[in-house]
Specification:
38% strand, globular, Rossmann fold, 7 helices, single chain, seven-stranded mixed β-sheet, four-stranded mixed β-sheet
């Protein structure tokens, strides 16, 4: 049994917990404290408000504990706001530099709200290198605008007025996903995350 934790401070963590609990061989666990991290094999950081999640992580001492978790080799997937938190560089489409707390676990640059506000939400079929194709739902989504070092963009989306930008990036045991797989209920990314757990 692989135990996958979902950071449950703010955002749509319940949807991730529900979907994970439906995958054979996976136990889903809410993570609200550093103590919870000791009980998991992998971690999902959900969508929500990235600044709020970042401050709550810092307040509870979870930021440094999650960084330690990643350094130990345990897999981490950040979706939407979670992808923002994994990045080393973040700017907002409107306000520019955010100065928000980040985990800085991936060699990627992310633009927040890259596609606009809620009314500009959209869905598209994406091909993920090494993972397969899936329906991707973008809601106030960020975009991966650069990857360097060990990070590699494995899925792109073409969007009018923006062009071709990254939708998924992988770096060793970390995975940044700019859309919401928990809404489309496609389990491919979760299964990939579980496959990274060292037996």
């Amino acid at each position: 049994m692989v135990v996958v934790g979902v950071l449950s401070l703010q955002g749509d963590f319940l949807e991730h917990l529900q979907l994970l609990s439906e995958i054979d061989g996976v136990k889903a666990l809410p993570v609200r404290s550093a103590k919870d991290l000791a009980r998991i094999d992998a971690l999902v950081i959900p969508g929500g408000e990235s600044t709020t999640i970042g401050f709550l992580m810092r307040l509870r001492g979870l930021d440094s504990a999650i960084i330690d978790l990643a350094r130990e080799g345990r897999p981490i997937m950040g979706t939407c706001a979670g992808a923002v938190l994994l990045a080393k560089r973040v700017a907002d489409r409107v306000v520019g530099d955010t100065g928000q707390p980040l985990l800085e676990l991936m060699d990627i640059a992310v633009k927040r709200n890259a596609f606009g506000r809620q009314r500009e939400s959209f869905e598209v079929e994406l091909s993920l290198e090494g993972i397969g194709s899936m329906k991707a739902i973008f809601i106030r989504a960020p975009a991966i605008v650069e990857a360097w070092g060990d990070a590699k963009i494995v899925a792109y989306v073409d969007y009018p007025g923006i062009g071709r930008v990254g939708a998924v990036a992988i770096q060793k045991n970390a995975l940044a996903v700019t859309f919401h797989p928990e809404i489309s209920r496609d389990t491919k990314l979760y299964e990939y995350l579980v496959s990274l757990v060292k037996k």
